[in-house]
Amino acid sequence: MKSLTNSLVFFLLIFSFFGCESSKNERPNIIYILADDLGYGELGSFGQTEIETPNIDKLAEEGMIFTDHYSGSPVCAPSRSVLMTGMHTGTTHIRDNSEWGERGNVWSFKAMLDNPELEGQRPLPDSITTVAHILQNNGYKTGMVGKWGLGAPHTNSVPNNMGFDFFYGYNCQRIAHSYYPTHLWRNKERHYLNNYLVEKNEDLDPDADIYDPSSYKKYNQNDYAPTLMHREALNFIEENKNENFFLYYASLIPHLALQAPKKWEDYYRKKFGKEEPYTGKSYYPSLTPKATYAAMISYLDEQVGEIVNKLKDIDKYENTLLIFTSDNGPTFLKEVDTDFFKSAGKLNGSRDRLKGSVNEAGIRVPMIATWPKFIKKETTTNHISAFQDFYATVCDILKIEKPKSINGLSFLPTLKGENQENHKYLYWEIKGKGGQQAIRYGKWKGLKKNLIKGKQKLKLYNLENDIQELNDISQEFPEIVSDLEKFLKEARTTPSVKDFIIPSLE
């Protein structure tokens, strides 16, 4: 009898062990690739004709295109805050790009090199539980490569304290304005590179020939940050191939400055032919700005292809949820010819409606998801979704209850082809560009701008027949305007950071 009992206990232990392991192994690996300032129309699968993106387009063929996906914000830091916290910009802590200038000369690369306490952006509160924390607490190995922008090195809000086992990249998004920085960060330590310091606004030498390639030599050095970060991403996948892993791949590309690998620059110089150099002062000069911009995106595409191949090599592709998207719309700066590239695609590409704006071209972004185990090939969805939904989707995948504080809604049913709950509305606010609010409510889009000047009337657009937001129909639909006004008030709380407060909304 004792022998039988012992055998039964042993059997149950073995069953429990393998049952747990089986359940664990059924959970997908997750890779979230975030491009930086990539426009809605800058991928072949979203209509691009000048820039070649075959690997990302292949993802679209093998997975699902989201046509109505939105970033967390029209600029970098708050968009990443929404992604990490699952809280939209009416409730998330970081609601705008704020460079915390009271510390000193935060825009000087030399000053930051000498004093790490000048690096980085305002931190997330210690109390925040990020989506990386959730995955880490549920047995995932978590890694981040790329641009952080959510807490300076001397604060607690660095990736390794915010749910990531491993980090390699830029802590500071200002330093990320150079692709050849003096250093990156490996976890909590600086990793110095074989590059010399060139200040952000350092212009061509006064006597330089603007058509001579040698005049631009100092802007193209030795250690190209996207290449170094990509190696670390591949290494992270390899090192954790026997575990469930989450990789947050926050690429710099194609955020300015215009700096790209020579192979791809040469390719597009041949393709586009002679062009006028960019010699302005907002970012580094470029001999061939169109070619360089296209080269950057094609290099990112090449990296995406290598990640997919890596997953296939280790037999993890079938059960990996891979998401590719962008943190906001394309740049409004003249270094990039957004008209030539039709960077906004079918959206209104006026420069005042690109990055920084809550118009569609500033916040609607391309998104592609692959997960061969569940997502059918060549599928498209018009489900209205946003960055805060990733957090909720992760909770759904893990089969845990999402925190009540988050504003996201799981899109896992959409990925699996099941019935999907829809958002009541999506909300954005930002103090930048004069103070702005936006709300998406089904087919309706509400906008308020110039809020720094005081309270403003809401403009209303029907995105089903006016995706370029040209015809304000607020006077025709007063009942919709009234509903949206109520939602705008209920969606937000007062920011805890003074720099983010828009007085007319308080």
Using brief descriptors, characterize the structure shown:
single chain; Arylsulfatase, C-terminal domain; 2 domains; four-stranded antiparallel beta sheet; Alkaline Phosphatase, subunit A; alpha/beta; about 500 residues; ten-stranded mixed beta sheet; 13 helices
- Helix-residue proportion: 25-40%
What is the averaged pLDDT score? 94
The main sheet comes to: 10 strands, mixed
CATH second-level architecture of the largest domain: 3-Layer(aba) Sandwich
- Structural category is alpha/beta
Return the CATH class of the largest domain. Answer: Alpha Beta
Q: Strand order, main sheet: write it out.
A: 7-6-5-4-8-1-9-10-2-11
Q: What's the total helix number?
A: 13
Low-confidence stretches: 1-5, 7-23
Any idea how many domains?
A: 2
Global morphology: globular
Helix-strand pattern, N to C? Answer: HEHEEHHHEEEEHEHHEHHEEEHHEEEEH
Count the beta strands. Answer: 16
Distance between the termini: 74 Å
**Gyration radius, in Å:** 23 Å
Kindly estimate the percentage of residues that lie in beta strands according to DSSP.
5-15%
General description of the model:
- The protein is α/β, with parallel strands linked by helices and 506 residues long.
- The protein folds into 2 domains: 28-423, Alkaline Phosphatase, subunit A (3-Layer(aba) Sandwich); 424-506, 2-Layer Sandwich (Arylsulfatase, C-terminal domain).
- Helix content is 29%, strand content 15%.
- The protein has helices at residues 2-26, 54-62, 76-85, 109-114, 131-137, 225-239, 262-272, 289-313, 338-341, 360-363, 388-398, 412-416, 478-490, and strands spanning 29-35, 64-66, 69-70, 141-147, 166-170, 183-186, 189-192, 245-250, 320-326, 367-370, 379-381, 385-386, 426-430, 436-441, 444-448, 459-462.
- The chain has a 10-stranded mixed sheet, with helices on both faces.
- Strand 13 and strand 14 (436-441) form a beta hairpin.
- The longest helix has 25 residues, at 2-26.
- The radius of gyration is 23 Å and the shape is globular.
- The N and C termini lie far apart (74 Å).
